[in-house]
Specification:
The structure is a homodimer of 440-residue chains. Chain A is globular and about 80 Å long. The first copy, chain A, has 440 residues and is of the alpha+beta class. In chain A, α1 crosses α9, α5 crosses α6 and α5 crosses α7. Chain A has 13 helices and 23 strands. Chain A folds into two domains: 339 residues, Bira Bifunctional Protein, Domain 2 (BirA Bifunctional Protein, domain 2, 2-Layer Sandwich), CATH 3.30.930; 86 residues, Anticodon-binding domain (Rossmann fold). In chain A, the strands form six sheets. In chain A, strands 3, 7, 8, 9, 10, 11, 12, 13 and 16 form a nine-stranded mixed sheet that branches. In chain A, strands 20-19-21-22-23 form a five-stranded mixed sheet, with helices on both faces. Chains A and B meet through β1, β2, α2, β3 and β4 of A and β1, β2, α2, β3 and β4 of B.
């Protein structure tokens, strides 16, 4: 992308309405703009990050055998009356009356719709287990939307639903999704810790939130130092197969042996049993939640399949959410400095920025064009008529993993400067070596 | 995908509510299910087609230099009051009141939001021209939704908006999008004819609908036989560059020389001038619309950029729509037979189906597994415990371009049968030759 003709409205000033780093940086780097309270438009650079997160989530879901569907945003109220949630849901539900006076709503979640699809379509025990998921916009009419996309009203979420014949099967699906989530967050460069969470009316221990550590997190969290140790999480995520129930059991044990809880579920007695030197406290941001809820929806909605003996079986269900748009903010909270965003390689909107420090200088222009031709859509070419200082500042602000800096003296000598955003390291290299170094 | 454990609810009976072929076939082949009147959930197979259409639209938009963004579904009424459209829009607009009693709406289109984003962000003439687009769900509260996804209430649309400094620039953007649209539809295997359309209050000749021919189309259309001639449209789309204004002018002339109009704009005098032997009449389905509207939104909404002399310039705008979800139905209307759908290769949910005619036969199972391992996500493996007849019927219904049929006699001899859905042609081949033939 050529920055001179791109829709990338970076800001020099810090917007006064933004209270936390990710919100400030997303506005300043031109990732999003608010269109109504808690509702955002994603501009080209922010859109690319959102799509990168979506892609990783999708690839990992598909690898686990989950099937992607797409349920609509607008749902009929009658399904929520069947499940018994319509009246109790409160003002966070955006209720709508259509032109024929039918009660509709903008889906805040999809248990009812997916259970309805299931009961219309799946008839035999032979077809189970299945996991269905979608990545779709949802709406919760927060009374006080804040923190940018971290607590917006319209937000993008991956929500998945498992259908199993019995509790044992549901446990396997649950563990499979836990492993899939660990891999998903790992690929985003995030250290997400599964923490025991409220399990609702069903009870039991099959409810976990995935929390990433950040000083601005909404929850106080308590965890064993094991989760901080290098490679603990990555080894756990790498060494198990999600097609093998024994592996899944070992993985689940591994993830739940060490203490980890948010303040909601914090247990002082258990905490006291953790070695004092290994107790860690901090703030955390929830980026995912997995939850077993049995027949809570399938039973009242009459979803059944015929068993081997012809008798109806009520499927056991679980739900699995990842906050896709929220993750954009959460990643920034976990990875930024005073100059701006520091994107993990897997999520960066562009692998590299090309900074032309002297537009109009023949050698600079030619070298930049050659680099841009080589990198294509992986590069943002800063070809604006701006001072070098403004280009440096915007590149740091936008957080590209690499900056290729082309000035007149270097260009004349056939050299560029390559800067790694995360470390600040700078090297003078030939253009070929710079491209090789960034893996292009 | 293994069909035995997939969410693909094919139907043997024709659903009574479906009046046209595409609606019937989409329900029967398990592509979609209705969740409310005119609102559909996309099941795994339908979702894949939708994503294929979206991908082609996106690739061609990006190739033309348009920038992808994502505007929210819920918009503030105040922007529509600024443009003057709020009160006049009528009951098709889904109006919503949020918990703070603010008037909101589910966007039926995005001129207001994109103009608002532009005026906040773009300050100088140097940054123009720009084309912004997004692919997002929209809502129109049709009084009588019908024809499945062809005239639904919640629908997926690509809408793009161009911003130019003057009329001449807007014409270039318009022609660029016309060329891009021709290429987009071509890649989908569609013959889309650009037809002069209503141009609204601005007048002029810069408004075209893209119409594909299908007997169930909603409009009567009149066109010169040139548009039916082999390669006319493909040559036109292939031979021009969208980075060259002269090329674009020649292309536009080529596309608008021959008569083509829907009944709305049909002109009997001009029609009489078409050689009688070259007059064609038929029914058509609108799948795209491009439209120049000047300063209709930028002016009342106060969107300006500073010109070279510092004086404000009101940008000239155009809008460019493609009905992404509608296209799934339109393609089926244009490409099916009595047995089912016939997918163009570029849109097919799976390149091939593997039909195991004798599940449990060691040679059949081994051969099918080997083919499936090779084809991966490009194949749908029919591993259900079903009669051969049911598998043939479902494969024809679902319209995979290729069927690889594995029966016990052939498997024992190391042979499969390869069927091409579009022609019915069948060949007995080794598995390797079959894979080579389908390009895997």
């Amino acid at each position: 992308m050529r920055l001179s003709h791109s829709f990338v409205p970076t800001l020099k000033e810090t917007p006064s309405e933004a209270q936390i780093a990710s919100h400030r940086l997303m506005l300043r780097a031109g990732l999003v703009r608010q269109t109504s309270a808690g509702i955002y438009a994603w501009l080209p650079v922010g859109f690319r990050v959102l799509k990168n997160i979506e892609r990783i989530v999708r690839e990992e879901q598909n690898a686990a055998g989950a099937q992607e569907i797409l349920m609509p945003t607008i749902q009929p109220a009658e399904l929520w009356r069947e499940s018994g949630r319509y009246d109790g849901y409160g003002k966070e539900m955006l209720r709508i009356v259509d032109r024929h006076d039918r009660d509709m709503l903008y889906g805040p979640t999809n248990e009812e719709v997916v259970t309805d699809l299931f009961r219309q379509s799946v008839k035999s025990y032979r077809e189970l287990p299945q996991i269905l998921y979608h990545i779709q916009w949802k709406f919760r009419d927060e009374v006080r939307p804040r923190f940018g996309v971290m607590r917006g009203r319209e937000f993008l979420m991956k929500d998945g639903y498992s259908f199993d014949l019995d509790y044992a099967g549901a446990v396997v699906s649950y563990r499979k999704m836990m492993l899939t989530y660990m891999r998903t967050f790992q690929r985003m460069g995030l250290k997400a810790i599964p923490m025991e969470a409220e399990s609702g009316p069903i009870g039991g221990d099959l409810s976990h939130e995935f929390i990433i550590l950040a000083p601005t997190g909404e929850s106080q969290v308590f965890y064993d130092a094991a989760f901080e140790e290098i490679d603990y999480l990555s080894q756990a995520a790498g060494g198990f197969s999600h097609d093998n129930a024994t592996d899944l059991e070992r993985f689940f044990k591994e993830m739940t042996t060490h203490y980890a809880a948010t303040d909601e579920k914090h247990d002082a007695t258990k905490w006291a049993q953790v070695d004092a030197g290994r107790r860690r406290e901090g703030r955390g941001i929830e980026v995912g939640h997995i939850f077993y809820f049995g027949t809570q929806y399938s039973k009242p909605m009459g979803a059944t399949v015929a068993g081997p003996d012809g008798k109806p079986i009520i499927p056991e269900m679980g739900s699995y959410g990842i906050g896709v748009s929220r993750l954009v903010g959460a990643v920034i909270e976990a990875s930024h400095d005073s100059a701006g965003i520091i994107w993990p390689d897997s999520l960066a909107p562009f692998k590299a920025a090309i900074l032309n420090l002297r537009l109009g200088d023949a050698a600079c222009d030619a070298l930049c064009e050659a680099l841009y031709a080589k990198l294509g859509s992986a590069a943002l070419y800063d070809d604006r008529e701006e001072r070098a200082g403004a280009k440096f500042a915007d590149a740091d602000l936008m957080g590209h993993p690499w900056q290729i800096i082309v000035g007149p003296r270097g260009a004349a000598a056939g050299k560029v400067e390559l800067k790694r955003r995360a470390t600040g390291e700078r090297l003078e290299l030939s253009p070929e070596d710079a491209l090789a170094r960034i893996g292009a």
